[in-house]
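One record is kept unedited as follows:
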Amino acid sequence: MADIRILQLGNENWNNVYELPVGIRLDFVRCFTEPPKKPYDLFFIDRELTAKEVSLLHKESKAYTVFVTEEFYPDLSGKGCDGGKKDSLAWLCLCKKARRINYLEIQDFLRQEARYYYPKPYGEKFNLRNLTVARDFSGQVQWKGNYGVTLRGEFGSSFRQIAFWRNNLPVFRLPALDFWLEYRKSPAVGIAMTVTEFASGSVSQVVGQWEFNEEELENIVHVPGDTDGWLFVSLNARGSGELQIIALHDRVSRGKHGYFLPGGERYQSSEREEAFRYFEPGDRKAPLCVYFSGYKTLQGFEGYYMMRNMGCPFLLIAEPRLEGGGFYMGSPEYEKIFVDMIRQAMEELGFSSGQVVLSGLSMGTFGALYYGCDIRPYAIIAGKPLLSIGNVAANEKHLRPGGFPTSLDVLQCQCNGMDKEAVKRLNDKFWNKFDGTDWGKSRFVISYMLEDDYDTDAYPELLSHLQEAGVQVYGKGIHGRHNDNTDGIVNWFLTQYRRILREDFGRKLS
């Protein structure tokens, strides 16, 4: 892992006061007047700041990474909280979600918590193709695409290995690893998970082993990353009935400081399906820009720097189901999570729907347009829209064999079938909701591929469904299939984003 870089603004150099662990570097400055050559991961404020320092800190720091000592932490209910006074530390604290820290807490924080503020997040899903069912299991085994595998039968009266993942997971001195197991089972089936660490360079030397029972697996479980090695994960079961193994996720841990990014939030449904959001208040002025991640096998948030560079409040939304995402669709309980994510941010900022912009690219366009039906935002900006997801799956057979098999998993999971009727039901899931929405006060900014081989008629079909008076649509077609000119799509996407911020919300962009 890269060193954690800390900037301290104070009157006394903390290098002479506190003990810094290996991998933690602290730079002390008395006057912060110019941008640093390299970004910092944490900021500590231990003195009064000038207006220039507040402005520079606002530009250079990430939300949730600023800490102010108790002596200088401001009253957030007073002056500066509305963002009108940019030399106010209170304004900076609100914009950056800064936290108070007690002097007695600093040493423990540097020793135990600072390591979780590493610069580059990492998360992945164990490849389902590497899941192996134990040879001595004599029951029924049913594979369901890339979604999961179902085991039915007798598992025994005591715990025994029922499945394991091949290709061990490398660990290189990480703060810790988070594991999340997606599964469903009959009440009579009990499960447990074992994680075994082998020494680096060895195939037999065990240096650590962790056992997690069913109660512990109700939450994310943690494995320390103090040594280099390889992790082997085994799933154990007992009882009789059905066990559905859906997915095993591993992520470099942020401890209690978030998920993927410091401040990242995690949600889960009663079916153990996850969703994530990251909210940064920016300058707390309209609009709130919401970005739905596209297809992404490396788990985490997409578009952080792109959205942050716009300067306004933004919300990143991601979900890690299937292989790279499940188009943000699911049960009413699961879909409500995404609506609540957006409305919580709106409420915190005091924004109306007319002060919200929803956006996304490819898979993310479905999220933006689908949940736009609930929010009815000022604008929706979409690049390479995918709307009739049933058609996307149907096109896998003839238009792009093997090009996007995840679409088949989405069809099977959402409609429990692969026939024409299932395709229609999945298409209707979007269009029925879309047609029941009053779009008269919204505008659509769409860039699309003229020869798209995923959703071939997404843009013309969108136009045919927009009949309300007052709705505005801006479209740009680019020649090529779905993935032929992503750069051209993204460039137009960003140009239109900046145009809306500048012309419709009066923002001055560099």
Observations:
- The chain has a mean pLDDT of 95.
- The longest helix spans residues 332-349.
- The chain has eleven helices and 25 strands.
